[in-house]
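Entry type: protein chain
Record version: 2
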Amino acid sequence: MRLLRVTADLTQAAMKLLKFLFEPNTSLFRYCAAAVPMAMIPSAILVGLAWIAAELLGIDMRSVPKPVLEPTLTELAGAVFIGPLVETAILAIVVYVLSRWINTAMLVATCSALIWGGLHAMAAPFWFFGTVWSFFVFSAAFIAWERKSFSQGFIAASVPHAAINLLVMAVLFMGK
């Protein structure tokens, strides 16, 4: 009985999250601020779960290639400014192309996220797990706000992306 209640609560929370992502009823500023933890926290959990699963399967995670990111000002500028702007422009194209064949926003965002996770995995395979959920959020943000205007969709996707990259780069800088 308790398991059913937990499942019902999780389902209700997921539905609220999806409603917020795809049917925003707030300002663009608040949406962007809320999208940062909505993208980052589940991504971190997914990475942790994937890491544990890999270890349980006998994979030595120390030997798994990791993305090469040096905490330099050039990397910071690329990760926080250039990357999110370029990737959001490409994300917009991906969403438009997918929307020609897929008529549900959630499925478009899911396909977009899988594409972006795969592209990031090409740099380092494990990076897939850190990016796939975030790109679901970015794709949903673009889809939801692009209905109002392209520029609002672009902002809704790129600002949380830049904020997350800034947080990641800050951690790298602190660790150096």
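Comment: The chain has a mean pLDDT of 91.
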